[in-house]
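Q: what sequence does this backbone want?
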């Protein structure tokens, strides 16, 4: 399992995408405002995702 780095674009839970802002031991903190339909989804700006529950879409998306 490859862990994401800060700035990576990841995808998780039914196609949600976000930019990794912080990498913790067991999870990453993700900024969801990257998605164009972010406001329509009524989500918080950031969320925590376990390393087991995402895939890296693009690297170094700073």
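A:
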């Amino acid at each position: 399992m490859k862990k994401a780095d800060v700035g990576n674009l990841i995808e998780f839970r039914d196609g949600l995408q976000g930019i990794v802002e912080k990498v913790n031991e067991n999870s990453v903190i993700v900024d969801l405002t990257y998605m164009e339909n972010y406001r329509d989804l009524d989500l918080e700006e950031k969320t925590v995702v376990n390393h087991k529950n995402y895939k890296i879409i693009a690297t170094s998306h700073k």
